[in-house]
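Please check both lines for our workbook:

___
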Amino acid sequence: MRQIAFVILIAIHFSAQCIVTKFEDVEEALKCPQIILDNLHVPAGLTLKLNLTDKAEVVFRGNISFGFKHWDGPLVTINGTGIIVRGESNSVLDGLGQSYWDGQGGWSNSKPQFFTIQAFGGSIFRDIRIINTPKDVVQITNSDRVEFANWFIDDSLGDPGIAPKGQEGHNTDAFDVWNSTNVVIRDSVVYNQDDCVALRCGSNISVSNLYCHGSHGLSISVGFSNDSVALNTIRNVSFSNSILDGGRNGIHIKTHIDGGFGNITGVIYSNITIKDIQYNGILIEQNYKNSPPKNATFEAQEPRNNVPIRDLILVDVTGSVTKNAIPIEIVCADEGCFGWRWFGVKVEGGKNNNCNFEPHGFIC
């Protein structure tokens, strides 16, 4: 009889939801098909590791908090196939960004990345609210068939003019995509101080219906690898129906002059509105070199064609920049840019455009 009762107890355990309120109980709960993280606190210097069973569901409830420590993180890792990760309407994940921010991002004291995600098989991450991220928010790596919907990322307390001088957020990228395919990012709001979306390598990526405030734009950044063409290649990408408001850049495509060879092919931006952009409304540069935010020379670099940009389409990209900004700037290397087609592109205000290459359908 005791053995029968034990078997029944185990069956109930694995068929029901598991509500977790203490960090030390997380590992055991990973066996459950539904895991509710209820007002969970993650101790400083530790990662909330969610290595999920197939088709499992994780629900964030209440305030999910993290202890303060200078380290690289990440604060949360999630791995799984066919999984659902979502937040309840009252939930928030708080990264204590104000304790880390120093205006230098990854160029000074270690700051933890928030999420590292590797997911497959139609996995969905939705209804997530995050505030005060120490550094970059979501690293999507080596994933396939994954969707991110209805995220609200708020690092506005790190904005210049709101944060005390020298305590601003930096390198707070919202969505970074690395070596992933069939990725959808949609219907989300981002307040931050770096790229709203940054695509590094991968294919078949759709980004739509985003509102990005204070960001460095809807970006493609290629050339991080010195020896892998695959890791320096991005193709079949769509950005659509989005607003860039008050940030450094609107649309930004950059290839790294100090990286290896690669390709950018088949990228389209459509129905993009940019408002009050401070540096460049549209910036496409084949002479990018990463530099710290302060004490950098920012001397112009000679463009390089190590990562050609082919078949770049812009349709109905409109808006404005501030008086000292450049509406549209294109810096192509010799034999670096091919088959561009732009229609309905009009960015007003600021200084004159600056282009050494003109796409079909557009006069710089």
